[in-house]
């Protein structure tokens, strides 16, 4: 079975984002970029399934600028076999629906039995591509995966929900989105990093799949969160109750 894994190039999670002075977006100049952490988990899960003999080939796919090749090379160094970059102009933010339509086109070419994506990207937190992709393909989906087990023609997904865990059994082919506690991604070794440079990486464009990436949403303003005000100390419970009433909280 072939597995298709979706990855995205985002600001490194250790970096504090800076808003542009004119409020038009996030400043990406001289900022460290890396693979979306949830997508790292997706790549790791595909590799583990391959090590178990369930998956025979792993194809990593990304929609982004030319620099996203670095992110795909990271996936190849971790253990993916091939990569596909659907390249867009630098600075173009492709919306989730367009991304899902593009990946649907890639799925049509690759015919994977299992599609694994991170549950969301940490730059926009949309949490939409996996669900939209499953709907466009008409395939079952297991979102927020905490555990993934392939059983014959089905995949059993233990999902993280507000009330605890929910287990669903999906007929393959299916779409799975990964949550934080599914696994701990491995570090790519130096030999594998060197090998990744020679692994196949195809470059496509949205036009190859007939997808219009023109934005349907307009960002009016981007601003940093308000600075948290300092707290105060009260002498006793009566003073606390009086302060709560004063603030109109209760």
SSE layout:
Blueprint: E1 2-6, E2 9-11, E3 18-19, E4 26-27, E5 33-35, H1 37-51, E6 57-64, H2 68-78, E7 82-87, H3 96-110, E8 114-118, H4 129-137, E9 141-151, E10 154-161, E11 164-171, E12 174-178, H5 190-196, E13 201-204, H6 237-247
Parallel strand pairs: 1-6, 1-8, 6-7, 7-13, 8-12, 9-12
Antiparallel strand pairs: 2-5, 3-4, 9-10, 10-11
Helix pairs in contact: 2-5, 3-4
Let me know the number of strands: 13
Strand content: 25-35%
> Class in CATH?
Alpha Beta
Largest sheet: 9 strands, mixed
> Alpha-carbon distance between the termini?
58 Å
How many domains in all? 1
Secondary structure category: alpha/beta
Number of helices: 6
What is the CA-atom radius of gyration, in angstroms?
21 Å
Keyword list:
about 250 residues; alpha/beta; Rossmann fold; nine-stranded mixed β-sheet; two-stranded antiparallel ribbon; 13 strands; about 30% strand; globular
Please give a structural write-up.
Its cofactor is AMP. Residues 23-213 form the Electron transfer flavoprotein alpha/beta-subunit N-terminal domain. Heterodimer of an alpha and a beta subunit. Keywords: Electron transport, Transport. With 250 residues, the protein is α/β, with parallel strands linked by helices. It has one domain (2-247): Rossmann fold (3-Layer(aba) Sandwich). 27% of the residues lie in helices and 28% in strands. Helix 3 (96-110) crosses helix 4 (129-137). The longest helix is centred in the first third of the chain and has 15 residues, at 37-51. The mean pLDDT is 93.
């Amino acid at each position: 079975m072939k597995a298709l894994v979706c990855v995205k190039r985002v600001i490194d999670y250790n970096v504090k984002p800076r808003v542009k002075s004119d409020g038009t977006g996030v400043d990406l100049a001289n900022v460290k970029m890396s693979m979306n952490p949830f997508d790292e988990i997706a790549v790791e899960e595909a590799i583990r399934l391959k090590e178990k003999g369930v998956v025979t080939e792993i194809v990593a796919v990304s929609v982004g600028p030319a620099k996203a090749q670095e992110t795909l090379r990271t996936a190849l160094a971790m253990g993916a076999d091939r990569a596909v970059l659907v390249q867009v102009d630098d600075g173009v933010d492709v919306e989730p629906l367009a991304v899902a339509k593009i990946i649907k086109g890639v799925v049509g070419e690759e015919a994977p039995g299992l599609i694994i994506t991170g549950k969301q990207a940490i730059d926009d937190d949309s949490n939409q591509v996996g669900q939209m992709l499953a709907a466009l393909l008409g395939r079952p989906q297991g979102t927020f995966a905490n555990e993934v087990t392939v059983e014959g023609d089905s995949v059993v997904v233990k999902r993280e929900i507000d009330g605890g865990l929910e287990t669903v059994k999906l007929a393959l082919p299916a779409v799975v989105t990964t949550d934080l506690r599914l696994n701990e991604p491995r570090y790519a070794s130096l030999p594998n990093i060197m090998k990744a440079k020679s692994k196949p990486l195809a470059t496509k464009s949205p036009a190859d799949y007939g997808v219009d990436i023109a934005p349907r949403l307009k960002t009016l303003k981007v601003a940093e969160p308000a600075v948290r005000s300092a707290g105060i100390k009260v002498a006793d419970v009566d003073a606390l109750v009086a302060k709560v009433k004063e603030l109109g909280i209760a």
